[in-house]
Design goal:
Elements lengths: L4 E2 L9 H7 L9 H18 L5 E4 L3 H10 L7 E6 L2 H12 L3 E6 L8 H10 L5 E5 L1 E2 L4 E2 L2 H8 L6 E5 L18 E5 L11 E5 L1 H9 L9 H8 L10 H17 L1 H21 L14 E5 L6 H12 L1 E2 L1 E2 L8 E5 L6 H17 L8 H10 L2
Helix pairs in contact: 1-9, 2-9, 3-4, 5-6, 10-12, 10-13, 11-12, 12-13
The protein binds pyridoxal-5'-phosphate.
Pyridoxal-5'-phosphate binds next to helix 3 and helix 4.
Length: about 375
């Protein structure tokens, strides 16, 4: 196989020592050796989520934990407020509808953030809303939402919880769960966790656990109460993804050794280098103001199909980034810089984008983007 380069917003590259940990012979999940690993993992997850509470682990993609966040806290007929400015905001509304929860959708323009005043207004008009669902980073647009501000508003409503899908955010961009009074934070392994797909995570505040006690929606595998009880004994209700948990143990050790401050500033630097490179090439950012440091969404230049950029990069240069989804399809391409990514990955991606755009007839001065990125990376 030819050498491949992965700069998609999930799955993301995996450090060799994590790969090696997952290649270890399988161990039995009811044995003390596994329980010891899980005990360390529990502490590592609390560090990463910046919470004193337990972080539940499920063998599923991130959506499983999103579904669990709905089914474990709400009842049929409950009202929810959903921030929807991209593909993943839609997912919250769809999960709610599947379980008979009534979503009131606050739609925003794709590529733009949301004004927290809109959430304040909605809650003022209808304080019976039980949950506010949002993304932290909306991966489909590259937008960063004002989570701290929204959460501050929600925290004044004892009957409302703040639920954050941080699947493409956690471990890349700051999100101190307890300090910002977030009630549920959901994440997935295939992003800044530096792991393959297959694990989903959910952390709940004491307030959210109070909702769990009253929730009557159906649930079975994603039963948070049952999973918490098991986790507290270094166990899981069902057979866990043992090898992924062994990899998780390694990746959490790396994150803890580096420290969150360093991890976030590395992401910030890589993101800035990517943005500056794209601007130097005369391109526009899809999220020009409220950009996330996890993924950069770039407008394809006039006359160039964003999907073609992605296709040529993949088929000709073996470099995978992501295209636009739904209304952004063909209009944008997205370069991720989350997890096990460093400065030379960014330089490589910028160089490959330059070559591809040139091939597609876009007039640019080759090397100008790379130069801009290098300048930022030398900061
Ligand atoms: C913000 C966000 N939410 C939800 C998901 C869905 O996660 P999964 O595909 O792991 O179920 C993704 C995946 O890309 C995401 O980026």
């Amino acid at each position: 196989m030819d050498k491949q380069y992965l700069l998609a917003p999930g799955p993301t590259p995996i450090p060799p020592r994590v790969l090696l940990a997952m290649a270890e012979p399988i161990i039995h999940h009811r044995a003390p050796v596994y329980e010891k690993i899980l005990q360390e993992v529990r502490e590592g997850l609390k560090y990463l989520f910046q919470t004193k509470n337990e972080v539940l682990i499920f063998a599923s993609s991130g959506t499983g934990a999103m579904e669990g966040a709905v089914t474990n806290t709400l009842c049929a007929g409950d009202k929810a407020l959903v921030v929807e400015g991209g593909k993943f905001g839609e997912r919250w509304a769809n999960i709610c509808k599947a379980y008979g929860v009534k979503p009131h959708v606050l739609s925003g323009e794709w590529g733009q953030s949301i004004d927290p005043a809109r959430i304040a207004q909605s809650l003022k008009e209808d304080p019976s809303i039980k949950a506010v669902f949002t993304q932290a980073t909306e991966t489909s647009t590259g937008v960063l939402y004002p989570i701290k501000e929204i959460s501050e508003i929600v925290s004044h409503y004892p009957g409302t919880i703040m639920v954050v899908d941080a699947i493409s955010h956690l471990g890349a961009v700051e999100l101190p769960m307890d300090e910002w009074k977030l009630d549920i934070v959901v994440a997935g392994s295939q992003k800044a966790f530096m792991l393959p797909p297959g694990l989903a995570f959910a952390a709940l505040s004491d307030k959210a656990w109070g909702f769990v006690a009253k929730s009557t929606l159906p649930k079975f595998y994603f039963d948070f109460k049952k999973e918490l009880k098991n986790l507290q004994q270094n166990q899981s209700a069902y057979t866990p993804a043992v090898s992924l948990v062994m990899g998780l143990s390694e990746s959490l050790k790396k994150i803890q050794a580096d420290g969150l401050v360093k991890v976030f500033s590395r992401h910030a630097l890589l993101a800035k280098a990517t943005r500056e490179a794209m601007l130097a090439l005369g391109l526009k950012l899809y999220a020009p103001q409220a950009y996330s440091n996890a993924v950069t969404a770039v407008m394809a230049p006039p006359g160039v199909d964003g999907q073609k950029v992605v296709k040529i990069l993949r088929d000709k240069h073996n470099l995978t980034i992501a295209g636009g989804q739904d209304q952004a399809k063909g209009k944008i391409f997205r370069i991720a810089h989350m997890g096990y990514v460093d400065k030379f990955d960014v330089i490589m991606a910028v160089a490959a984008v330059e070559m591809t755009l040139k091939e597609l007839g876009y007039s640019l001065e080759m090397g100008k983007g790379v130069h801009a990125a290098m300048q930022v990376l030398l900061e």
